[in-house]
Target: Beta-1,4-mannosyl-glycoprotein 4-beta-N-acetylglucosaminyltransferase
Amino acid sequence: MFPLQVQGLVPRPRLISRRKPPMFFCLLLLLLVPIFLFGIFVHGQKISYFFRPLWDNPPSPFKRMPHYYAENVSMDHLCNLHGWSLRSEPRRIFDAVIFSNELDLLEIRWRELFPYVSKFVILESNTTFTGIPKRLFFASNLSRFAFAMHKTVHDIYPGRVAVPGSYEDPFMLESKQRGAMNSLLRRAGISYGDILLMSDTDEIPSPHTLKLLQWCEGIPPVMHLELRHYMYSFEFPVDYSSWRSTAHIFGPRTQYRHSRQTDLIFSDAGWHCSFCFRYISEFVFKMTAYSHADRVKRKSFLSHSRIQNNICKGDDLFDMLPEEYSFKELIKKMGSIPRSASAVHLPAYLIENADKFKFLLPGGCLRPPE
Ligand SMILES: *[C@@H]1O[C@H](CO)[C@@H](O)[C@H](O)[C@H]1NC(C)=O
Ligand SMILES: *[C@@H]1O[C@H](CO)[C@@H](O)[C@H](O)[C@H]1NC(C)=O
Ligand SMILES: CC(=O)N[C@H]1CO[C@H](CO)[C@@H](O)[C@@H]1O
Model:
């Protein structure tokens, strides 16, 4: 009895649901397909970034060199721990940056590295990498850097303004400026055997890293510097992913670059503070001047209130997903960057002048417009 009842009951709902659905499904599809297509249209980049682990291969891994340091340990002992030996005299260090508009970070960088650097070499263009005319932020704020003028070699790169409507490849303009940096370095008097640091203004090697480069014999001729990556301020530590900056023993074949040059990377060698600006107007400038200006997909991305909101939440300014090559890493990094309350192991000049640089420290996320 019982099984029969079940058999009799089961087909009925099926019959009912067979007759009605077509109309209903058609309507549903009619609604969902455009929503789906619109979603792909609007979030195409996000979707493709989400599936990056499927379509992109990770770059070949770096070989991480251990880095030993503690306060007040002798240079001799530190060199030995790395398998190097102590030199009888220090190497000269040349710190070369192509400057955009990071005035505050440039000041922290130069104050922090001043005792170790022989020459600060700085190239500033009067256009951005995207071919937009740009004020000469460094040249018009020289008084702020007067303390380092006797060590500074500065030049202005005559940029070309992009013709409206034409496309200028920002990476092309960037590489031309790197070429100009090579001749500026020679003018600065660099010679074979000197240390040359190639980094962006916001990639700051730590003083104890420079001391090792200066004082140890046996360091590799080229190594990347693994920097702790921060976003907006030292309140938002992202990870240790920053690798582009390099330290070279200058030689006949050294060329100024900002890309992968060797498999060696020196661990925990400093700080990379991206978009660490004092004023909202500086964020807007950087977002449009930057080699990835194409990431500004909508005008609303440049709205001051949206930028301020994202800074305080630790959210991405371009509404993008992190560039990760495994789903595990991607999911770990999705969403806002968690805040840190630590201001330990930061540049000493920043801590000594904490009042002047509140915006870079915990609790300082609110930024004036300009
Ligand atoms: C630093 O080292 C020197 C000698 O190596 C020692 O005399 C001095 O007390 C040390 N200072 C601290 C703060 O440990
Ligand atoms: C940049 O400088 C060069 C050389 O001084 C000049 O010819 C050019 O007009 C300048 N461009 C802008 C956008 O100011
Ligand atoms: C602090 C300071 O002097 N800032 C100046 C830097 O240069 C710009 C012009 O490029 C001026 O507007 C700032 O006042």
